[in-house]
Amino acid sequence: MTARLLDGKALAARLRARLAERVAALPFRPGLAVVRVGDDPASAIYVRNKDRAAQQVGFLSRTLHLPATTAEGALLEQIAALNADPAVDGILVQLPLPAHLRPEVAIAAVDPAKDVDGFHPLNAGLLASGLPGLVPCTPRGVMHLLAEAAVPTAGRHAVVLGRSRIVGRPMAQLLLAADCTVTIAHSRSRDLPALCRQADILIAAVGRPELVRGDWIKPGAVVIDVGINRLPDGRLVGDVAFPEAAARAGFLTPVPGGVGPMTIACLLENTLEAALARRGLARAAA
Ligand code: NDP
User: Fold this and answer.
1) Residues with CB under 6 A from ligand 1
2) CATH second-level architecture of 27-117?
3) For 58, left (φ over 0), alpha (ψ -120 to 50), or beta?
4) Given pLDDT bands bounded at 50, 70 and 90, which one contains residue 46?
5) Which of 183, 230, 189 shows the shortest CA–CA distance to 210?
6) Over 223-284, what HEC string results?
7) Residue 11 and which of 80, 91, 258, 265 are 20 to 30 A apart at CA?
8) Is the peptide bond before 98 cis (omega within 30 degrees of 0)?
9) Of all atoms in ligand 1, which is nearest to the CA of residue 229?
10) Which helix (H) or strand (E) holds 61?
11) Are 26 and 282 in contact, with CB atoms under 8 Å apart?
12) Which residue in 50, 78, 89, 111 is the catalytic one?
């Protein structure tokens, strides 16, 4: 079997084009504010990409770049100012923060209605309760990829590798909401290969290069590789051994070009939803 590739780059481009059309028809421009603290080089690239993508779909986008020495109180004051700013619909605090700043404190300071990363405990709680709220971007992107490939979810066994707040947990909640039977595995789980072989839908969000081997995959399964790992030789690989998986899976996402591009597209989608919801024009989607 040769897996069908799920092209996240192309789907993200279509999603952004649809968002741009919707924004062009609005009487206002949604506003996104990104808070970056310090000089982490990877964060600088991510923030620039988010800013560019936001402007391309017609949002007002601004980046607040604070020095690495910023005190927690000063960061919280800046977040409070963005919460109060009517031109700002979405706020995200770029992670990681410098070591002296507590990410959970910064995230909890964001107005949940503007929490376009979907990391605020209120939004996490809404998702866990099966209620509408702002949903983390990467898992949301994965659900788009599954829908685009018309992958049936009801009654299917989904195995999620990873239980982080950003990917694994919300991913499992979304799959549960889509009527999958969900197993969540993590670093203390026993016999990962046997767990994975049960999966009709396998989501790898672990951050370990090529951990998932071909013989862990049930023939014909849908395999979504969230991992992004840089090898010492500079190559970028996922959490799934791609050539082996391609020979077994029914559907497979490449790295790069799979889940990654969907994350930013979903950030834009969340920002538009937050903008509409704040104006009473729509409810944030579950
Ligand atoms: P975290 O490090 O926060 O979480 C990793 C999870 O994987 C943890 O739950 C951990 O278990 C589990 N884990 C680690 N090692 C193993 C192992 N050997 N076996 C089983 N489980 C293991 O990472 P993130 O969730 O933030 O990210 C995961 C990956 O996804 C990374 O490669 C990251 O770069 C990528 N990513 C990609 C995005 C995209 O847009 N494509 C966006 C966000 C992340 P435990 O909880 O027990 O420690």
Assistant:
1) 138, 161-164, 166-168, 185-189, 192, 205-208, 211, 226-229, 259-260, 263
2) 3-Layer(aba) Sandwich (3.40)
3) left
4) very high
5) 230
6) EEECCCEECCCCCEECCECHHHHHCCCCEECCCCCCHHHHHHHHHHHHHHHHHHHHCCCCCC
7) 91
8) no
9) 32
10) strand 60-66
11) no
12) 50
**How many angstroms does the Cα of residue 242 sit away from the middle of ligand 1?**
17
Neighbours of 132 (CB within 10 A): 15
With tokens 């597209």, the residue in question is 265
Q: Which residues contact 17 (CB under 8 A, 6 or more apart)?
A: none
Overall pTM surpassing 0.90 (yes/no)? yes
Instruction: Give the domain ranges of the chain.
Output: 27-117, 136-260
Report the C-alpha dihedral over residues 101, 103, 106, 107, rounded to 10 degrees: 180
Mean pLDDT over 45-65 rounds to 96
Instruction: Decide if 27-117 and 136-260 have a common fold.
Output: yes
3-state helix, strand, coil in the chain (%, to 5): 40, 15, 40
Helix (H, G, I), strand (E, B) or coil at 168: helix
Task: Name the fold adopted by 136-260.
Answer: Rossmann fold (3.40.50)
Q: Is the pLDDT of residue 197 over 60?
A: yes
